Recover the amino acids of this structure.
């Protein structure tokens, strides 16, 4: 249906019926968990005593490779813990992987593993259609709080004498034997796309049955919509992915009036406003809501048990970043909610594969709240101090990476994360306090930031130097520029958004006539050479000490910036 692996419709491909981009093994299991989360949430939010509009099951087909990958284990534990009994996974247990038979690398009992997580498990002959039907029916009717795992024991390449049941059947090796195999399983000779009469009859019936079910659902939906016009308006806007525009939203969020403040703290105030303006926005964390400050205060918690309910807007993923990333993608594919997930920025590499798919599939409903953005983290030391992480995110196509410098830029960043249509967004926030650029009007900072980069301090004499910075380094740039009348400070919270501006705008911010340009960011310097001839960055791992000391020692101070400027020709 698509070249290579199936791809979710995006600006490059639009193959009808593809619900999810697959290919990287294991992520699909966690995507399915995301679908199940979203369906449970939609049911809890929108079903009423009189009308049930959400009650469908989520099916996923998976193989040995999917269960060998760790992401599926993280997701399976989460699914059972939150009692997602609307999820049915069918495991194609053919005892084969690519290089070898599965037993060469796999000896655990996968069925028992899933049982231990808390799933209801079934063990059937996958070639026995009655057994498949019975297991699926049982799985669908047991609303017992357990997700369902159906192990379908199968033979790969069935009928292909030369490769049947072996890893050779997985790939190209099977193709030359197909004609013979068709004969072996009783298909008529010479018919390339043979569909039997029995199959046709069966599907004729299916079509009629499905049409009746569809019509019945449409009637229920119409009645629900009539009885609940406000909810219907909200749901239809959520499905259409409608929000107020970014320009409207920045006007609706009050001035932050922050003094020196960490952007994660600013983010905490702003996410409350976002949650009001975007009712389908939900916010999860891999056990770091407390540090990342992305908790929606009156949103309730999602899940089963304790104080949780399926209508909760805060998701507790546990320390399962990889599953979190894929579950966010699954929620986005399902097409109702917009979901963010948080952790420390440095742990992005635990779910980087899912960010890649989100970017490829242009999942604009997904965003990441990544705090503790630099060596400014301090005592936690180099394991927790990102230096390569922010640049590592900027190299993804279709991903917007924001590193705002104060509370007003944080407003713009958050607003962009819920209004941007072309792909996911990473919000990079600081642990430590930083100054606000109060010399500039708050709305002008928001509007400027929405363009990705803007003049944060204009030169007062002929322009002879541009100082660029992001995040916590903008305050240093402003200080260093204070005594330099010909210096302009450009804050660049989002390179990707700036790159998308008109040439005229870009030229107005970074006039090509001014070639003396320096950039400062507490991270690796490489990407900045696109804009600057000199870069004050951190091209080494940090060390453990109070954050302000680490920053100063590694050159992130206005004094060092001034010294570096002085050394420029
Ligand atoms: C993350 C990831 N690693 C490796 C691959 C390459 N790969 C594709 S299929 C496969 C073997 C999968 O085995 P299994 O799930 O048992 O599929 P089967 O052989 O039964 O079709 C591998 C290693 C991949 N697609 N994704």
């Amino acid at each position: 249906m698509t070249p290579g692996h199936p791809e979710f419709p995006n600006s490059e491909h639009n193959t009808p019926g593809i619900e999810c981009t697959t290919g990287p093994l294991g992520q699909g299991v966690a995507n399915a968990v995301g679908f199940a989360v979203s369906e449970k949430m939609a049911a809890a939010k929108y079903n009423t005593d009189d009308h049930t509009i959400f009650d469908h099951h989520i099916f996923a087909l998976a193989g040995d490779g999917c269960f060998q990958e760790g992401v599926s284990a993280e997701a399976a534990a989460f699914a059972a813990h939150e009692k997602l009994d609307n999820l049915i996974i069918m495991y194609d247990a053919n005892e084969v992987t690519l290089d070898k038979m599965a037993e060469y690398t796999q000896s655990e009992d996968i069925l028992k593993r899933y049982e231990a997580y808390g799933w209801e498990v079934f063990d059937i002959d996958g070639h026995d259609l009655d057994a498949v039907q019975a297991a699926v029916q049982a799985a669908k009717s047991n609303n017992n709080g357990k997700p369902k795992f159906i192990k379908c024991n199968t033979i790969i390449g069935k009928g292909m004498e030369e490769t049947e049941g072996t890893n050779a059947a997985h790939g190209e090796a099977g193709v030359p034997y197909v004609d013979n195999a068709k004969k072996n399983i009783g298909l008529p000779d010479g018919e390339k796309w043979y569909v039997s009469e029995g199959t046709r009859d069966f599907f004729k019936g299916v079509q009629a049955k499905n049409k009746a079910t569809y019509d019945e659902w449409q009637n229920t939906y119409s009645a629900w919509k009539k009885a609940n016009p406000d909810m219907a308006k909200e749901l239809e806007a959520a499905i259409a992915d409608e929000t107020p525009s970014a320009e409207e939203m920045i006007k609706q969020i009050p001035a932050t009036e922050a003094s020196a403040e960490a952007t994660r703290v600013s983010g905490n105030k702003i996410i409350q406003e976002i949650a009001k303006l975007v009712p389908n926005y939900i916010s999860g964390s891999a056990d770091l809501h407390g540090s990342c400050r992305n908790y929606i205060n009156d949103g309730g918690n999602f899940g089963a048990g304790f104080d949780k309910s399926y209508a909760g807007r805060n998701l507790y993923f546990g320390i399962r970043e990889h599953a979190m990333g894929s579950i966010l993608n699954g929620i986005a594919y399902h097409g109702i909610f917009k979901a963010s997930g948080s952790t420390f920025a440095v742990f992005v590499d635990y779910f980087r594969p899912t960010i890649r798919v989100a970017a490829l599939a242009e999942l604009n409903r997904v965003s990441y709240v990544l705090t503790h953005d630099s060596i400014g983290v301090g005592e936690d030391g180099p394991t927790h101090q990102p230096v390569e992480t922010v640049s590592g995110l900027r190299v993804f196509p279709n991903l917007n990476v924001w590193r705002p410098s104060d509370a007003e830029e944080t407003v713009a960043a958050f607003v962009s994360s819920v209004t941007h249509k072309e792909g996911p967004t990473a919000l990079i926030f600081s642990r430590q306090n930083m100054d606000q650029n109060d010399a500039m009007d708050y709305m002008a900072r928001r509007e400027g930031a929405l363009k990705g980069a803007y003049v944060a301090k204009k030169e007062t004499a002929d322009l002879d130097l541009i100082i660029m910075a992001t995040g916590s380094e903008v305050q240093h740039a402003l200080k260093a520029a204070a005594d330099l009348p010909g210096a302009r400070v450009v804050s660049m919270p989002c390179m990707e958004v700036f790159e998308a501006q008109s040439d005229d705008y870009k030229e107005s911010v970074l006039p090509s006539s001014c070639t003396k340009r320096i950039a400062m960011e507490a991270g690796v310097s490489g990407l900045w050479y696109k804009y600057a001839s000199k870069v004050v960055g951190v091209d080494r791992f940090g060390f453990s000490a109070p954050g302000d000391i680490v920053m100063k020692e590694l050159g992130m101070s206005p004094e060092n910036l001034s010294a570096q400027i002085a050394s420029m020709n």
